[in-house]
Amino acid sequence: MCGSLGTAVSDLQGEIDGTTSYVDGKALLDAEENKGSSLYIGPTQTSQFAFSGTDLLGAGTNNVYFILDKCISMVKNGDTAGLSGMIGDLQSAQSRVLCFQTNIGATMNTMELIGSRYTSSTLNYKEMQSDAIDADMAEAYTNFTTAKTVYSAALAAGAEIVQISLLDFLK
């Protein structure tokens, strides 16, 4: 085996060994249950926003780390025929990860759209409430002044009429 390839394989093996956690002798990613969380969006729509590591990376012999470990062993042992057979497993794992990446991107877009709609709706409702409840001060003052002027004119006209009528009565 080539020196630089052997070093790269050893480094990769160290990365894999360093990141796999075990619980009761079983790899943590294999032991994890599907703990996905979903968000209620509307009357008929929910969106899953959390995915388990088992769903993403696979379980058992389909686990990405298991496949990589097997490939590393084959490289160390010079098993090129077996390594060629692992290409399909690696492509399947890659496809699964890309599928999850697509789903996560779509979920993020949905969440951003929902947030944008919520913000827009909140602003619209506040504006509608303001239009219904709040007074336009300039308009209210103009209406008050007009009503006051009309009232004053009506009182003045009434006083004139009463004064003339009283004089006619006294004659």
UniProtKB/TrEMBL annotation:
It holds the Pfam family Flagellin_C. Residues 92-170 form the Flagellin C-terminal domain. Coiled coil: none annotated. InterPro entries: Flagellin, Flagellin_C. One of its GO terms (cellular component) is bacterial-type flagellum. One of its GO terms (molecular function) is structural molecule activity. Keywords: Bacterial flagellum. This is Flagellin C-terminal domain-containing protein.
